[in-house]
Amino acid sequence: MGAAQSTSQPEEKVFHNEVPIQFSPDVVNQLSDNLESVDTPPQRQSLIDAHIRARIQGELEALKREEEDVRQQIEAALEKENLDRERSMAGESSSSDEDGSSSGDVKTSAALFGDLEEVKAKIEKYHAKRTLSEHPDIQAASNAVVECYK
Q: Compositionally biased, Basic and acidic residues: which spans (predicted)?
């Protein structure tokens, strides 16, 4: 236990061959040709290109997700800021109404939406009455009622 840790690392071993190694001229020529040519083979180049495209696509998707997250955070912050501003303006107008110096009625978007729905309902009601008055039978009956009151 611990003996392996306390012993010093042995020196690098060097082996000497007893038989001389000789390479054929074809092997030497092929190795030298490979060193001289810096062009990668077409298959390897296409593999490298595909790998680079995949990494770029992955990074692009990650950036798009990050951009969407940032956009949602900004929208949420702006919405909160606008609601706070509406509330503070509505609070200021109600306090100024108590003082008697009204600077205008500031409504929240929810109140404005309700008012818009009321106006839409009134318009639909008006159009319904208008289409009824276009019928001649209804128009004749209406005129008869008017003549009775005269």
A: 66-89
**Using alpha carbons only, what angle is made at residue 28 by residues 25 and 33, rounded to the nearest 5 degrees?**
120
pTM of the model: 0.38
What is the CB-side half-sphere exposure of residue 67 using CA atoms within 13 A? 6
Per-residue confidence (pLDDT) for residue 100, from 0 to 100: 46
The DSSP string of 113-149 is HHHHHHHHHHHHHHHHHHHHHTSHHHHHHHHHHHHHH
Three-class secondary structure assignment of 102-115: CCCCCCCHHHHHHH
DSSP secondary structure letter of residue 19: S
* From 3-12, 65-74, 132-141, the region with the lowest mean pLDDT: 3-12
Is the separation of the CB atoms in 132 and 138 below 8 Å? yes
Query: What is the distance between the alpha carbons of residues 131 and 41, in angstroms, rounded to a whole number?
Result: 80
